[in-house]
Amino acid sequence: MRPDTHHNGSLAVTVLVSVGRHPLTGRGRRADQDARGVELAHTLADAEVELLHAGRLDEGSEAALRGYLGMGFEALSLLEQPAGSDVLPALAEALEAAGSQLVIAGERAEQGEGSGLLPYLLAERLGWPLVSGLAAVEDVADGVATLLQALPRGQRRRLQVRLPAIVTVDAAAPAPRQSAYGPARRGRLDVEAAPVMEDADMAQWQAQPARKRPKRLKIVKAASARDRFKAAAAKAEGGGGQVLSDVTPEEGAEAIFKLLKEEGVLR
Q1: Reading across the β-sheet that carries 102-106, which strands appear in turn?
Q2: Strand runs labelled E in 17-107
């Protein structure tokens, strides 16, 4: 089903937001990519923007979600879902009921699976096109959006997509504005009824702490004896290490004498 693309002359935009995770402290926060999606929605003229979140509501998640309200919104729609549930059916039903024309989401979540597949599964379920790596929305006219997609090495590509559509943003999108404390506290978290479906696949997974990967040794390719000597005598970047082989002082002096002789320093 394709929703009506004429919302009283305005563009119906829904931004999917999630609870992020601070990379150092591990505390909940507004996710960086989702916050960039909210900032991108602010740049759209004549747009009715709605914030939508599917998940649990507790003390930590509420503080993170209010960070989005502090970016200039009065309310955020919350589809409360228990742990271990599949949020795809709830999001798809809510987007169809709201008549959203443009859905903005981050590339991947900062917590949970973080696979980045949710926008693709949502687009497949709704039958909508999807554009990834969005940098800007240049224009929306006659049900067609002109988008600027970010490519590697700073390149950009201009695309046109017929609405309704889903777009994902990453670090190429505009940086989010600071969240204001007052509006964040005054904003509403509107809990809405939504279907709950257990994620059967995730229930079969086994999680364990990730092992720390060993640091790769730097391979030095030197063309001369001087370069080889400098690489061997260079101080290692790491704070610790292991001795690979024991060399006596006599052997070390002999090796240095040989290298200096090859360079012509000694005759």
Answers
A1: 156-162, 144-150, 130-141, 165-169, 102-106, 11-16, 47-55, 75-80, 188-192
A2: 19-21, 28-30, 47-55, 75-80, 102-106
The beta strand positions in the chain, using DSSP E, are 11-16, 19-21, 28-30, 47-55, 75-80, 102-106, 130-141, 144-150, 156-162, 165-169, 188-192
Contact 36, 49 (CB under 8 A): no
CB contact set of 138 (below 8 Å; sequence gap of 6+): 146, 147, 148, 158
Q: Is 237 exposed, middle or buried (0-12, 13-18, 19+ CB in 10 A)?
A: exposed
Q: 38-89, pLDDT tens digit by residue?
A: 999 999 988 999 999 998 888 778 989 999 999 999 999 999 888 778 889 9
Token pair 């002109």 is found at 146
Please choose, from the candidates 135, 125, 73, 62, the residue with its C-alpha nearest in 3D space to the C-alpha of residue 95: 125
What's the confidence (pLDDT) of residue 267? Answer: 63
Q: Of 111, 116, 124, 141, nearest to 29 (Cα)?
A: 111
Helix axes 249-262, 225-233, angle to 10 degrees: 140
Q: For residue range 6-42, list pLDDT tens digits in order.
A: 445 689 999 999 999 988 888 889 999 999 999 999 9
Residue 223: helix, strand or coil by DSSP?
Answer: coil
pLDDT band at 244 (very low <50, low <70, confident <90, very high): very low
